[in-house]
Specification:
Strand 2 and strand 3 form a beta hairpin. This protein has 113 residues and is of the alpha+beta class. It has three helices and nine strands. The strands form three sheets. Strands 1-2-3 form a three-stranded antiparallel β-sheet. The relative contact order is 0.13. The radius of gyration is 14 Å and the shape is globular.
Length: 113
């Protein structure tokens, strides 16, 4: 993050977990492993720009300009909501036990606690 700040890069999203995995999204994208970066790059090719990420100890959700990618334990209720939501999701957070929060840039949101 210090590199991003030194480069005056605007950080859009930071995600990390207790397993020392992390993702930083700004003008450039960085991740803790090549495996995570390859997963991110695959989504960039399919869905366009990466807007945000949520990373738990056992799951990953990525929000792209034109779609989503999931890996591991991501709540089914969240996946279903993302298929039916009537706004452009920009931010997404979830927990392994099924809670989630999604929002767009205009103040629309949905959640499950």
């Amino acid at each position: 993050m210090r590199e991003y700040n030194a480069d005056k890069d605007v950080i859009l999203s930071v995600a990390f977990n207790d397993n020392d995995d992390w993702i930083i999204i700004g003008e450039k994208i960085s991740a803790s492993s090549d495996k995570i970066m390859e997963y991110i790059k695959d989504g960039l090719d399919k869905y366009g720009g990466l807007w945000s990420a949520c990373l738990t100890n056992d799951g990953l959700a990525l929000v792209y300009e034109n779609g989503f990618k999931y890996l591991g334990n991501v709540p089914e209720a969240l996946k279903l909501k993302l298929k039916t939501v009537n706004f452009d999701v920009y931010k997404l957070k979830f927990t392994s036990d099924g809670a989630y929060f999604i929002a767009d840039k205009k103040g629309h949101f949905a959640y499950k606690m």
